[in-house]
Design a protein that fits this description.
Layout (H helix, E strand, L loop, with lengths): L5 E11 L4 E12 L4 E5 L6 H8 L7 E3 L4 E4 L2 E2 L5 H7 L4 E4 L13 H13 L3 H14 L16 H12 L6 E5 L7 H18 L2 E6 L2 H7 L2 E6 L2 E7 H6 L4 H8 L16
Bound molecules: adenosine-5'-diphosphate (ADP) and magnesium ion.
Length: 272
């Protein structure tokens, strides 16, 4: 058995208020294995993004991670990293595709410049090296190198999304976090992008933490799924079990609230 890439134990995160503290994440524990496509599902407000930000150490006050919480990435204590260690950690160890990522590119910079910013700052690449690496990364998400000279507004939503993913893969992170990355895209494009990610994680052997409130999409993409309810992780199971014989009453209620799915989950994690 190999060791997990990500190991979370007893993670509790409060939002500190003037009068009361709001417990957004309560005593959450789970592992993600090397190469695994792991999903975190649950209704809006259940704490999914709060967990994603904590793993990337991008959480800010009033979020407070409670004592006793542990996040290990490849065995390293993420919550103990200092500023210098964090600069090496981000992009190299963990990269995060944010909610509404298709709008997270800088509108006044060309695609090439946005790759260069990351590759120069975090890998010390020259312009020539960065251009070659950027073309290689674009090819991985099926985008022509001609696009290097484009501005974001000249690209479709799905293309901007794939560019953001390519930038996130620039330094070969061990874990790619995608927080509702495709919500703004139509269903066909969403599936194409998830299919592409699935192929890449097998080629490049990174792990994925995929967050969405869309359980049907998640079952199609993931190996294992965690279900969150009001800050707690109430069930973790393989996608097939979540789909066919959900164990927790809340998981069953989530399914009941959705339009009926026709057919079995598509190829990928769920049927592997
Ligand atoms: P999800 O991503 O599952 O929709 P979030 O992690 O964004 O949920 O939020 C979890 C809970 O924490 C929600 O009730 C939300 O209102 C609350 N919350 C999120 N950010 C803040 C904040 N900056 N201050 C106070 N409460 C917050
Ligand atoms: Mg969220």
């Amino acid at each position: 058995m190999s060791a997990p890439v990500l190991s979370i134990r007893n993670l509790s995160i409060d939002y500190i208020g003037a009068d009361t503290d709001f417990p957004a994440v309560r005593n959450v524990s789970f592992d993600i294995m090397p190469g695994e496509f792991f999903g975190l599902a649950g209704e809006s407000g259940c704490g999914k993004s709060t967990i994603a930000f904590a793993i990337s150490r991008l959480h800010r006050p009033p979020a407070l991670i409670r004592t006793g919480s542990q996040i290990l990435l490849d065995g390293r204590d993420v919550l103990a990293l200092d500023e210098a260690e964090l600069r090496r950690f981000r992009w190299r160890e963990v990269a995060m595709v944010f909610q509404s990522a298709m709008n997270s590119l800088n509108p006044v910079l060309t695609v090439e410049q946005q790759f260069f910013d990351v590759l120069k700052t975090h890998a010390g690449m020259s312009r020539t090296q960065a251009r070659a690496r950027a073309a290689e990364l674009l090819a991985m998400v099926d985008i022509s190198p001609d696009r290097l000279s484009s501005y974001p507004h000249q690209c479709s939503g799905g293309m901007r999304q794939r560019i953001v993913i390519a930038i996130c893969l620039a330094l070969n992170p061990k874990l790619l976090i995608m927080d509702e990355p495709t919500t703004a895209l139509d269903v066909v494009v969403q599936r194409e992008i998830l299919g592409r990610i699935d192929t890449l994680r097998q080629q490049l052997s990174f792990s994925v933490l995929f967050i969405t409130h869309d359980l049907a999409l998640m079952v199609q993409a993931c190996d294992r799924i965690g279900i969150m309810l009001e800050g707690e992780l109430v069930e973790v199971n393989d996608a097939q079990t979540i789909y066919q014989s959900p164990q927790h009453p809340y998981t069953r209620r989530l399914w009941a609230s959705l339009p009926r799915l026709t057919g079995a989950p598509m190829a990928g994690g769920a049927s592997a």
